[in-house]
Amino acid sequence: MPTADRAMTIAMVAGEASGDNLGAALVRQIGILAPGTGFVGIGGPAMIAEGFTSDADIERLSVNGFVDPLLRLPELLKLLFMVRDRILASRADCFVGIDFNFFNLLLAGMLKRRGIKTIQYVSPTVWAWRQGRINKIKRNVDLMMTLYPFETEIYEKNGIPVAFVGHPKADEIDVDEGESAKVAARSELGIEANEKVVAILPGSRKSEVRMTGRDFLDTARLLGGRVDRFVIPASNARRLEQLREMLATYQELGSRVQLIEGESRQVMTAADVVLVNSGTATLEAMLLKKPMVMSYRLGPMTYAIVSRLIKTNWFALPNILAGQSLVPELIQDDANPEQLAQAVKILLEAENVEKLVSEFDRIHRMLRKGAEPGREAAAVVLRHCGVDVEVH
Length: 392
Prior knowledge:
Rossmann fold, 2 domains, 19 helices
C-alpha cells in the first residue's frame, strides 16, 4: 500500500500494439488522478510516450497462434522471470496485465502468491472458447476489467470480481468522426476528395503481416482500376520495412499503394472501405463507421486446434457486439485474394450503407463511458490498489 512517504507503484505488461494503446490511456489517466504514481513492467511506444519506462522491448513479446509461443518458449520464460523479479524488487502495489493473457495470467499468478493485487485489463475470450480458463483466472486474478458489457456475465457467474470499463477508443473517437474528419484526413495524406480509397490493415505484429500481407496485396492487384488508392499503415518502423520489402514485388501496383508509418485511425478515416485482419482494428473501423471486410487466417496447425474449440458464431468484433452478421468474415481457406477482392468490390459499389452505419452507431454509443479515454479504467485500477478517487 502507498504511504505518506512512499508513492504508489503500479506494474503493467502489454504485449502488442492494441494493449500498448490501452496502456497509454491508462498511464495518462492514472497520472492525472494520482500524480506521482510510478510504473514498472513492459510497454510499447505509446505507453513510453506517456512516461512509462519499459524493462524490455515489446517486440520481444510478439507472438501469434499456438505454435509461435511454443517455438519461442525459452525466450518468453526468460522475459517472464525477468519482469517478475523487476516487479517484486520495485515493491509494486498492484499489477495490471493488459490483454496478452497467456503471459499475463502466468505472471499474475506468480505475483498474487507474493501478495500483490492483480488485475487483468481485457478479458480473454472465455465466452468464445477454452472456457476452462475461467478457473485459472479465478486463481490468479483479483479483478477482471472488461471492454465490452456482455463479457461480465461469465465472471459474475463464477464469482470473479469484474468491472465493465468501456473501450477508450469509443470515448476518444467522436460518433461522427469517420465522416466529419474524412476530408481533412485525405488532405493530410495527399488524397483527392473524389478518389476511391481502400485502407489495408494486415496487422501490427510481424507474424500477422507475414501471414496476411501478400494475400492483401494480391487482393489489391485483383481490384485493379476499381480503386484509385490503397493506403497501408505500418504500426512501427519494423513493420514499415517488412511491408516495404513485401511491396517491392508488386511493381504493377505502382503509386496506387501508399505505405505510411503511423496510426491506422487517420488511414481508416480517409478510406471508403477497410480490408482488415481480425482484431482490435475491426473495432476502430466500426467506430469510424467504415464498411469493412475482415480476414482471419492462421497457420494450418493452429487453425486445426482453434476451429475445434471455438464456441462463437463470429470472429469480427462488430458482429459479436451486434449479435448478428454486419461485417463479411472470410476465414482461413476462404480468406484468399479472389474472395477478398469480391467482398471489397461489393462494398465499394454499395449505394446504401445507412443501416450498417446506424448499427455501428448504436454499438459505439453503448461502449462509451462519457469520460476522458481510459479515465474509468484508471479509477477502477486505483480503487483496487487502495486509492479512493472520484471520476468527474
